[in-house]
Amino acid sequence: MSVPRAIRQVFLAIEQSEGAGARVRRSIGGRQLRSLTPFLMLDHFSSSGAAGFPDHPHRGQETITYLISGGFDHEDFNGNKGTLSPGDLQFMTAGRGIMHSEMPHAGKLNTGLQLWVDLPQSLKMCEPRYRDLRAAEIPVAKADDDKVSVKVISGESYGVESVRDLAYTPVWLLDVSIKPGGRILQSLPKGWNSFAYMLSGTATFGSGESSQVVDQFHNVVFEQEGDFVEASVAEDAKEEARFIIVSGQPLDQKVVQYGPFVMNTQEEVYQAMLDFQTASNGFENMRGWESEIGKRSPY
After folding, report:
1. What CATH class does 7-248 carry?
2. pLDDT confidence tier of residue 17, bands split at 50, 70 and 90
3. What confidence category does residue 200 fall into, taking pLDDT thresholds of 50, 70 and 90?
4. Taking Cα atoms as reference points, which of 127, 125, 102, 183 lies closest to residue 150?
5. What is the three-state SS of 20-64?
6. Own/partner pairs, 268-277, CB within 8 angstroms, 24+ separation
7. Of 21, 123, 136, 289, which is least packed with CB atoms within 10 Å of its CB?
8. How sure is the predictor about 106, in pLDDT bands with cuts at 50, 70 and 90?
């Protein structure tokens, strides 16, 4: 018999400054929820004009960037370049080291999500890589007489599977929209850590006495036990609700993080800082490198 997942925690993601003039709502990686293995950080970002994330390093994690509106350019010290349009995603594995820049298109309101996923210890020093997923490639599942629509970015929903795995650490990522009167029962892998982040509208998670009404910009963290999560939107709601459901396989390892460096021991973090400062052991290409798109920033 299937068992619903109970709600562990619900909280508002407070807006804060990040990068060069950008604003983010950090619902994982902040004071309210430091981490939820394998997830290290979730930022709901907003930027306009030249505000963005100019040249900066990473080591030891993967980042998943999901653009909701506007446009974002990417450039790194290995010569990789790309552009995200609304609905597109980029999966980046930092591995042993990457230096890159992420900058918005001027004159637009650029909004999206960036999720940091921890890498297993055996892959911390792997070679960097990228995988893009375009909006047109993402399959969509429908349910409850089309009152429920799910973009299956990674994972499975109502018999619809994602096109491919895009991260080393197994992760499900579902973009859910529910019209007034709609209801979703979303199965999730057993034992994985899972949460839902509200992008817009209001939804009720759970049912009966244990249900909670959740508003925009709130994160809903579920217990590990259980088979599915339930969410619905009231029949008389003035708008549909939109949220992402994210689930990931826990990693049984220590997390030691210093800013963009995420390793398993303090010594490994010290080494990452030294390698970055000396442009060695994965950071060689940063010598004399400066991104073109990073020059847009006046900060």
Report:
1. mainly beta
2. confident
3. very high
4. 183
5. ECEEEEEEECCCCCCCECCEEEEEEEEECCCCEEEEEEEECEEEE
6. 268/60, 268/124, 272/59, 272/60, 272/97, 275/59, 275/97, 276/57, 276/59, 276/97
7. 136
8. confident
Which parts of 65-165 fold into alpha helices (H)?
none
Residues tagged in the binding site annotation for Fe cation: 56, 58, 100, 102
How confident is the model over 219-254, as pLDDT tens digits? 999 999 999 999 999 999 999 999 999 999 999 999
pTM of full prediction above 0.90: yes
Decide: 189 and 229 in contact? Cβ < 8 Å. no
Three-class SS of residue 217?
coil
Q: CA 67 to CA 108: how far, in whole Å?
A: 13
Contact 98, 130 (CB under 8 A): no
Known binding-site positions: 56, 58, 100, 102
The CB density around residue 189, as the number of other CB atoms within 10 Å, is: 14
Answer positive or negative: Cα dihedral of 145, 148, 152, 155. negative
| Average pLDDT score over the chain | 95
The encoded tokens of residue 89 equal 């995603």
Q: In whole angstroms, give the CA distance from residue 119 to residue 109.
A: 31
| Local structure of residue 182 (DSSP, 8 states) | -
Q: Which residues of 203-228 are buried (b: 16+ CB within 10 A; e: fewer)?
A: bbbbeeeeeeebebbbbbbbeeebee
**Which of 59, 236, 91 lies closest to 169, judged by CA?**
91
